[in-house]
Design brief:
The protein is of the alpha/beta class and 318 residues long. It folds into two domains: 2-144 and 300-315, Rossmann fold (3-Layer(aba) Sandwich), CATH 3.40.50.1370; 160-294, Aspartate/ornithine carbamoyltransferase (Rossmann fold). Helices cover 37% and strands 14% of the residues. The chain has twelve helices and nine strands. The protein has helices at residues 2-5, 23-39, 65-76, 97-106, 121-127, 146-159, 178-189, 221-225, 249-256, 260-263, 286-289, 296-315, and strands at 54-59, 80-84, 111-116, 134-140, 167-171, 194-198, 216-217, 230-233, 271-273. The strands form two sheets. Strands 7-6-5-8-9 form a five-stranded parallel sheet. The longest helix has 20 residues, at 296-315. The radius of gyration is 19 Å and the shape is globular. 44% of the residues are buried. Bound molecules: phosphoric acid mono(formamide)ester. Phosphoric acid mono(formamide)ester is lined by residues 63-66, 139, 148, 275-277.
Length: 318
């Protein structure tokens, strides 16, 4: 994968996963996101770094945050953005994914932002391109959501700098979560040692598998949050569950919902994150989601800067 993602001089070629991405590249992207935030005056002032470039958003799954923020990020850097309408495209006539990509490449574009329910689709596209366009993974199945991982790390780093001392809890539907995998990948790369995963047994992956190999697995959320610095709550991904994986939402909330009482067990000032969309009062209580410790909307705002950084890194020298 590294040969696919990185050039010989360690520049990003595509962004498919954060797994194995060198720390220097991750830190460069986070520093760049900070610079984007500053130089664009928090988004109020457009930049022209990518004037003349074209980006195509190809979202085969629904999205509010990722699609809109890629659109805004590209526009704020001066690029032209096409939001490809899958439902009104020749995909519905049976045109294959790769024929669609090659057709769009023939019209010239510099980047494809791809979300797909099948893990591995962005990588397949990147391996079959006929141009030098970049592929950015906007979430593929349960595999990876690299820009979410970057924006989460960026949001956390703006609040707490000492990553090796951080205790971070990730709670919810870890089995199906591409966000959990990308968050673990990037937080490990940045030096976080204490990563605690909490989920019902049916929503936990194998403890020794892939990204989660070095994490601790804690079955009780009360235990998991004790003394922690950050809690990342995850959405129950019913669209990826084959059958009712949890008995009821009320039961799930009682055991795994983040409430003020549970949050009080964490360190004072512990921050609360969620990639969204939220199932209120299923994963997280209203007063926690909207409370003073919640960074949920800050994550959304930072998503634009993180994606500006990735787009600039990928496209400015092409
Ligand atoms: N966090 C996230 O990927 O949200 P969307 O599905 O709205 O893009």
């Amino acid at each position: 994968m590294q040969n696919l993602q990185l050039t010989a001089d360690v520049r990003l070629r595509h962004l498919i996963t954060l797994a194995g991405l060198p720390r220097a590249v991750v830190e460069r992207l986070l520093d760049r996101a900070e610079a984007m935030r500053r130089d664009s005056d928090g988004g109020a002032r457009p930049l022209d770094l990518l004037a003349g470039r074209t980006l195509i958003n190809l979202f085969f799954e629904p999205s509010t945050r990722t699609r809109t923020s890629f659109d805004l990020a590209a526009q704020r850097l001066g690029a032209l953005v096409i939001n490809f309408d899958i439902e009104r495209s020749s995909t519905v006539k049976g045109e294959s994914l790769l024929d669609t990509i090659h057709t769009l490449e023939a019209m010239h574009c510099d980047a494809f932002v791809v979300r797909h329910k099948e893990s591995g689709t962005p990588e397949t596209i990147a391996r079959n391109l006929r141009s030098d366009a970049a592929v950015l993974n906007a979430g593929d199945g349960s595999h990876a959501h690299p820009t979410q991982g970057l924006l989460d790390a960026f949001t956390l780093r703006r609040r707490i700098e000492d990553f090796p001392r951080l205790s971070v809890v990730i709670c919810g539907d870890i089995l199906h979560s591409r966000v959990a995998r990308s968050d673990v990948d990037v937080l490990r790369t940045l030096g976080v040692r204490d990563l605690r995963l909490c989920a019902p047994p049916e929503l936990l992956p194998e403890s020794n598998s892939g990204a989660f190999a070095q994490c601790s697995f804690v079955s009780s959320l009360d235990e998991a949050v004790a003394g922690c610095d950050a809690v990342i709550m995850l959405r129950l991904q019913k669209e990826r569950m084959e059958a009712a994986a949890i008995p009821s939402e009320a039961d799930y909330f009682a055991r795994y919902g983040l409430t003020r009482a549970r949050l009080a067990r964490a360190k004072p000032g512990c921050v609360v994150m969620h990639p969204g969309p939220i199932n209120r009062n299923v994963e997280i209580a209203d007063d926690v989601a909207d409370g003073a410790q919640s960074l949920i909307l800050e994550q959304v705002a930072n998503g634009v800067f993180a994606r500006m950084a990735v787009l600039a890194e990928l496209l400015e020298r092409r």
